[in-house]
Amino acid sequence: MINPSFKEYLPSYYVSTANPHSSYPTLEGRLKTETCVIGGGLSGLCTALPLAENGHEVIVLEAARIGFGASGRSGGQVISDFACGMEEIEKQVGLEQAQWFWQQSLQAVELV
After folding, report:
1. Are 67 and 40 in contact, with CB atoms under 8 Å apart?
2. How far is it, in rounded angstroms, from Cα 79 to Cα 72?
3. Can you give the chain as a three-state secondary structure string?
4. Among the four residues 1, 68, 70, 93, which has the most C-beta atoms within 10 Å?
């Protein structure tokens, strides 16, 4: 059983600027779906939304509220690049593939 206080947001920029949230029913019994996404944070929602927009049946399971965890407490940084640096990527896969990876990181920022 989840502690009721677990379902409330901590004070944060996200909470003070977010649109009013909706309450959703607790899952009871069984549901059948094409895709089940566990977690209603940025990654979970960025997975579920395009699937749903393309006609797939999607259920998002979240233990607390949408954006409750780290996604709702983030400083809002979305950065393109890779931790090891592009030089290392180029050494591992070559220039053409490294450029492709770089473009993918830019597109990921745009998606978010």
Report:
1. yes
2. 17
3. CCCHHHHCCCCCHHHHHCCCCCCCCCCCCCCCCCEEEECCCHHHHHHHHHHHHCCCCEEEECCCCCCCCHHHCCCCCCCCCCCCCHHHHHHHHCHHHHHHHHHHHHHHHHHC
4. 68
CB atoms within 10 A of CB 48: 19
Place of tokens 């395009």: 50
Q: Is the dihedral of CA 88, 91, 94, 95 positive or negative?
A: positive
Going by pLDDT thresholds of 50, 70 and 90, the confidence category of residue 23 is: confident
Question: CA–CA separation, 65 vs 18, rounded Å?
Answer: 12
Residues whose CB is less than 8 angstroms from the CB of residue 33 and which lie 6 or more positions away in sequence, other chains included: 57, 58, 59
| Token pair in block for residue 81 | 């690049």
Give the position of tokens 């996604």. 71
Q: Do residues 59 and 33 make contact, with C-beta atoms less than 8 angstroms apart? A: yes
Count other Cβ atoms within 10 Å, centred on residue 67: 22
